[in-house]
């Protein structure tokens, strides 16, 4: 067995490992009590502190903090509390005729000691959302939030310390080196939210211990606008979905595919809606947040400058201010394929436009890329909608809206291949943190006994009959 005693976090890991069976054997009532304590901390004790921390980290408006951070976790907790008893009950399954005399069931048991590595863009939601599933499943958990939102991470550390004992849930702050040390330890499950590039690093580290993983990644999520669309309604949703959280959302529309016949109408209506939402000077708007830090600001500015070098058309915005990490809501058309805005995930308030003549062009283009985390379709034609869904692959799809699929906890949330492995939310998140353990119990003798050795012609005939009829 490997020696991890020189690892800074080995003692904490061992403490949770020793405690895992106690936590794993707690009742659904005990787990619900913990979830209620977390819920109270988020919506009462620390609500204003969370709002202030997120404003300090990247000027996140209170409404966005309430809706996309606190509400979604509280909603996850409520849904889990309402269903946890049934999730933890033994799931009876049918008995085949050849196994008469037995009964079988599935028991969802905790995986053990889990690591949750969360990102900076929705730090509260994407840290505590998976934690809800991990607690419901009966695991011990170490949390590692992003260093890019230090104020929010500090608040979350206080919440965890206030609500949980360290031997069941602990939060570790720090830079990337902290995550690297944690990944050396033999966790039973790792839940990571971030980029595909880092996801590969996580998966490689997990493979050394055969740890299971959930990878919530990203990629370029296309938005298709068909000529049959209700354009007014579409733009209302797209402008909100793109510039929410300053575009720093893994399921934000990454680029728009619009039929060439309605391109000009789309651009004018888009500009008007952005003006309505964020005013003539978005920099002064209390509804518009900021790029999280200088590194990401410089990356996004480089993409805008790259577009200008390629003679693209800045239809809206394009201006920025380094002192405050401000980039205006930006819409860009006439980009060549080699432009970085079309080759790399944007993760910011910049939306490129591509035009098309036939829906086949769109399908071929999307299928030539990695599978997206989300794919959006704006159309009134059912035939077109069904054709796109049946001819493409994506982690999720939203029709005539965007991002809302994330907020329905009856739906699994996650990607496919490059955009992710595994699912989150509700029962699907609970499943990620559990092992579906199969249990079979024999009660009486059964037909199988007729086929025990020594073998003979009669038993051979019975076997052949079983192959043919059962």
What would you note in describing this structure?
The chain is α/β, with parallel strands linked by helices and 470 residues long. Helix content is 44%, strand content 18%. It has 16 helices and 18 strands. The strands form four sheets. A seven-stranded mixed β-sheet has the order 10-13-14-9-8-15-16, with helices on both faces. Strands 5-4-3-6-7-17 form a six-stranded mixed β-sheet, with helices on both faces. The chain is globular, with a radius of gyration of 26 Å. The model has no long low-confidence stretch (mean pLDDT 97).
Q: Strand fraction band?
A: 15-25%
Q: Tell me the distance between the termini.
A: 46 Å
Radius of gyration: 26 Å
Average of per-residue pLDDT values: 97
Q: Strands of the largest sheet, in order across it?
A: 10-13-14-9-8-15-16
Form type: globular
Estimated helix fraction: 40-55%
Per DSSP E runs of 2 or more residues, the count of β-strands stands at 18
Low-confidence stretches: none
Structural category is alpha/beta
Main sheet?
7 strands, mixed
Number of helices: 16
Nutshell version of this structure?
With 470 residues, this protein is an alpha/beta fold. The chain has helices at 10-24, 28-45, 47-58, 62-88, 123-137, 150-163, 176-182, 196-207, 231-243, 263-278, 294-309, 340-343, 359-367, 382-391, 426-432, 457-469; strands spanning 91-93, 102-110, 113-117, 140-144, 169-171, 189-193, 212-216, 222-225, 255-259, 313-316, 320-321, 326-327, 330-333, 350-356, 374-378, 396-399, 420-421, 434-442. The longest helix has 27 residues, at 62-88.
